[in-house]
Amino acid sequence: GTVDIECDMMVLGAGPGGYSAAFRSADLGLSTVLVERYSTLGGVCLNVGCIPSKALLHVAAVIDETAAMSGHGVTFAKPQIDLDALRAHKDGVIKQMTGGLDGMAKARKVNVVQGLGQFVSPHHIEVTAADGSKKVVQFKQAIIAAGSSVVKLPFVPEDPRIVDSTGALELRQIPKRMLVIGGGIIGLEMATVYSTLGARIDVVEMMDGLMQGADRDMVKVWQKHNQHRFDNVMTKTKTVGVEALPEGIKVTFEAAEAGAAAPAPQLYDLVLVAVGRSPNGKKIAAEKAGVAVTDRGFINVDKQMRTNVPHIFAIGDLVGQPMLAHKAVHEAHVAAEAAAGHKAFFDATVIPSVAYTDPEVAWVGVTEDEAKAKGLAIEKGVFPWAASGRAVANGRAEGFTKLIFDAESKRVIGGGIVGTHAGDMIGEVAVAIEMGADAVDIGKTIHPHPTLGESIGMAAEVYKGVCT
Ligand code: FAD
Fold it and tell me: Does the entry feature the keyword NAD, yes or no (predicted)?
């Protein structure tokens, strides 16, 4: 067939993985085509994920903080919420960020081809634009970064009062009663926004606790501080029926454990389904390129992010958990560098996780609960923020900072922080783990006082094994 564009590198998908891969490829001298079906770059993260959610969470945090100021002797008037203006602000943030990516692509001469890409051979992809016109791109190497999509529950009907995370971020209405199905990070971040804007929230979660993956002692601190947001937190509970009635969305539940009592059915004004994301591996005709896709839609890769077809790489949500933007970006750089002939490998020891709730919950490496479950010999240092002058001055002393050490080597292998700005601080623990730091390295590093970040140094000092 005819070929419209030839390139060294074709990147499929322009999320954090794809744009990072395309930019690095171009920087390394490869002529690069970036295929994206949507009109803006940035993928899920910039358009309907990380960035818009944080724009709304910032507003929620300011509203909550000003309300708390009455306890500090300053009282603000009740906030007036102009939903249209708030939405416009959030959309403006997205526009600024995606527009910035356009400029970066142009500066690097990355050729952005808009349309739905489907492989037609191991060296060709066909891109169908919205108007139906087609272009064939021939490539020497490729990086697949097609990302993931929301998981739908089969029994949930179509109704404007039932949304996924994308719909929730559109902020069409502030309901009186809202149900969040799925007590993971995304569901709880949106619960934070909607509750601060005035909704009463219920959460239903199949597992025995919210925010799976984080240590229970951290989640407990978050949950205590957030009790006021929730009418019902239903754990170990399955959602088994969702019905769109004129008077509301009727939701029926079942206990996840046999014999346990189920909560009564409830009526809601808005239901957010946030039960996870599934990889887009089956939607790109990967088989035409000979690329193997698992039953669940993931693409397996080696340490250089190569698929079973050596000149085709894959990165991001599509290659496995954790589905996080910073993992995608890191993998993108490995893939692009390997494609350019560098000896690059994905050898990160840890990938941090952050719930941008209030307080934030952040963790990295081995968690205490995981160590217990696996019988690992660990020791820990915990610094309660009640002893942090800065946290007390902020009126936010509920948090703590915890470091996990290998009992034998005394090196730090994990850490968790619950408290305001935890997400901004967890990177220090990640650096310490990657560098093989021990408690002395961290504890004897002079941290500025008074900061929340010095709680990391204090947690190392508290740890008696080394620092006496
Ligand atoms: P994606 O961002 O999914 O991008 C894939 C791109 O490929 C899309 O633009 C898609 O249109 C395009 N594409 C797919 N198939 C084709 C095709 N056949 N042809 C053309 N184009 C195609 N992560 C964090 O690290 N921090 C957060 O705070 C955070 N918050 C989140 C909040 C929400 C509400 C959601 C939903 C996710 C959040 N995430 C967060 C996860 C983060 O968005 C993803 O991990 C990240 O976007 C994955 O990047 P990616 O490049 O793998 O894929």
Answer: yes
